[in-house]
Amino acid sequence: MPVETVAAAQVTKDVHAWEAGGASSPEALAAWVSARLAAHEAALAALLAVEGPRTVDNTLKLYDAAIEHLALAGAQAGVLNSVAADKAVRDQAQMEAQRVAMTGSALSLNRGVYDALVAMDMTGASAATQHFVERTLLGYRLAGVDKDKETRDRIQALHEKATMSSLEFSRNIQEGGKTIVATQAELEGLPPDYLGRHQPDAGGQITLTTDQPDMQPVMTFASNGDLRERMFVAYNTRAYPVNKQILLNLLSTRQEIATVLGFRSWADLATADQMMGSAANVRAFLAKLEDASREGAVREHELVLDFARGRQPGLKTIDITSRGYWYEQFRRAKFDFDSQSVRPYFPYKQVEAGVLETAAKLFKIEFRKSDATAWDPAVSVFDVFEEGIQVGRFYLDMHPREGKDKWFSAAPVVTGVRGRYMPEAALICNFPGGDTDDPGLLQYSDVVTYFHEFGHLMHAILGGQTEWAGVSGFSTEGDFIEVPSQMLEEFFRDEKLLQNFAKHYETGEVLPAEIIRKMKTAGAFGRADWVRTQLYYTTLSLDLHDQDPAQIDFDEITKRLYTSLVPWTWLDGNRMYASFGHLTGYSSNYYTYAFDKVIALDFFGQFDTEDPLGCDAGARYRKLVLEQGGSKPGRQMVRDFLGRDEEFSAFSKWLNEEFDSQLISATA
C-alpha cells in the first residue's frame, strides 16, 4: 500500500470506538478494534514490500502509521476497560487490550521491520526523527529482536502471559470494591455533607464503600478507631486473595523474560531505556531520599505521637490506620487549621473551572465545552483552541460509577500527529459529586490531585502536535512522565490563583487569605512522611522485581519494608500489595514519582513567585518541555529548560519548609 493511501486511511470518521457502538456492544467493540489492527497490518505489509533504498519517506512513515493504528486501538480498549458501564463490554475491552498487546509484542520482535528501519538512509533527518529512530531501535534490541526465531517466539509467548496477568490484576482491583457497615455514632467527626449522603437504613446501619469519596474521609476525620480499622482492612484487601497468585505469576513471567534477554533481573531490564539507566542507579537515588528525609520523619513522628498521647492518655503507638486522623488533629491544634473548614470552598464544579482557567492562562489556550459524544452521559467533553484553531479534545470522567476504575489517572484517547490526528485524552477520576444534590466538596488534597492529573492532560494535548506518533504526547521515558503532572500541582501554592475559584458554595465568600496561609503551613507538615511513604512503595516495587520470585513472601517483604521505612505501627492483615495497581504499569519503576518530584520542583522554581501565570517561564516550559512530547530525551528537555541538569536543592528546600523557624515555633 502506498504511503499516501495509508495516511489517507487514517483520517476516518470512525476514530472513536463508542461512536461505532463499542461502549454498549462487545461485538461492535471487537469489530472496531479489528478494523484498526487490519490497518496496522496493512501498513506493515506495505513497509515490508518496499523495494530499493530505504528512506524516511518510504519506510518510517509507514512504520509510524502502523504505530498510530495500534496506539488508537490500545488506547480506547484501555479506556473502555476502565469505564464501560456494561460488564460484558469491559470484559470484551480487556480481551481487546490483550489482543492489541499481543500485536505490539509481535511487532517488537519482527526482524523484518527492524532490519528495514536499520537500513534507512537518515541523511538530512531532523533531530526529532533521529531520536525517534534511535529510541525505536533500542526498544527492538531490548525486546530481543536479535535473538533466533525460537527465542523470539518464546519471548512473545511470555509477553502475552504477562499481559494477561496484568489485565487480570488490574480488573480485580477495579471490580473488587467492598462495603462495611457502621452506626451513626461511629461516624462522629465526619463532615455534615458526608453524613447527609450516608443515612441509616431501617435497622440503623449505614453502608460505606471502599471507593475514594467514602474511604478517604473516614481515614482522615472519623474519630472512631474501630471504624477506621475496618475501612482500612476492607480497602487493602479488596483484591485479596485472588491477586496474590496472579502477582506471583506476573513477577515470575517478567523475571523469565529478563533472564532470556540476558538481564540479571526485570528491574535492570525495565530501567535500561529510562533516564535512571539501571536498578543500581535507582537504589543510589533512594539512598539519597532516605538520608534527606530521615531526620524530618523522626521529628514529625515524635511531634504527632506526643500530641496524640496528650489527647489520649495511655496511647503507646499510632498505627497505620490512625496516621491520617492524628495528622489532621495535630494540624487543627498546632496550626489552627481544620481541613474540613476549606471543603465548602472547593465544590467540584468550581474546582474544575479553576483548574481549566489556570491551565488556559498558563499555556495561552482556550477550552470550550463540546457537544461531542463520549462513552457515558456523565462525561464532560472539552475542545482545546489556540488562536481560534482547534488543537485537541479531552474528556472528564470524574466521579465514581459501578464497575468503573476506582483510581485517578490520565489516559490517551487519540494519539496526536501533526496533519493526521488531533490529540485527545481523558481523565478518569473518582472525586465526590456528580449528583444534582451533591456539591462534591473536595478536600484540599483532592484539589492538588486535580491539578496533578490535568498536568498529564496538557502534556498529551500540547505534546500531541509532533511529526511522529511514536514520540507524541506521553511518549517520553517512563521516568519523565510525572514531571508535567507534579509541576502543575505546584500552582496550588499561589494565593491569588486559589482565590479566583475557591469560593464558598453557599455564600460565595472567597477563601480568606489567612486560611490559605494556614492551609499552606499545615500542608507543609508531613512532607517527610510523604517521602518515607514514597520510599516504601518505591522500594517494594523495586525489590519485588529485583530478586528471584520463588523466594518472595509478599506478607513478609511488605511488613519488613514498611517497618524499616515508616514509623507508624504495622497492622497485620494488610495486603496492600494485592491492590497496588502501579505494579502492573510502572512495574519496578515506581521511583518515578519521587525522581520527577525533584525535577518538577526545580522547574517550578523558574517561575515568578509573585506572578506564576504571567511570567515568561510558562511559555518557555510549554515550548521546551510539553510541546516536545517524546521528541527529545528527557535529560535534554531538563537541560533545555533549566540550562543544566536538575539539582536536589529545590527538593531539599521544599522538604524542610516544615521545619523553618515559624513552624518550629508553632509546634514548640
Distance between the amino and carboxyl termini: 75 Å
Query: Which sequence of strands runs across the widest sheet?
Result: 3-4-5-7-6
What fraction, in percent, of the residue positions are helical?
55-70%
Weakly predicted, low-confidence segments: 1-12, 664-668
**Could you tell me the radius of gyration in angstroms?**
25 Å
User: Per CATH, which architecture of the domain at 344-525 and 610-653?
Assistant: Orthogonal Bundle
* Most strands sheet: 5 strands, mixed
- CATH top level of the domain at 344-525 and 610-653 is Mainly Alpha
Counting DSSP E segments of at least 2 residues, the number of strands comes to: 7
**How would you sum up the global shape?**
globular
Strand content: 5-15%
**SS-based structural class?**
mainly alpha
Mean pLDDT, nearest integer? 94
| CATH fold annotation of the domain at 344-525 and 610-653 | Neurolysin, domain 3
Number of helices: 27
GO biological process, one term: peptide metabolic process
Domain Peptidase M3A/M3B catalytic: 219-653
Family: Belongs to the peptidase M3 family.
InterPro entries: MetalloPept_cat_dom_sf, Neurolysin/TOP_dom2, Pept_M3A_M3B, Pept_M3A_M3B_dom
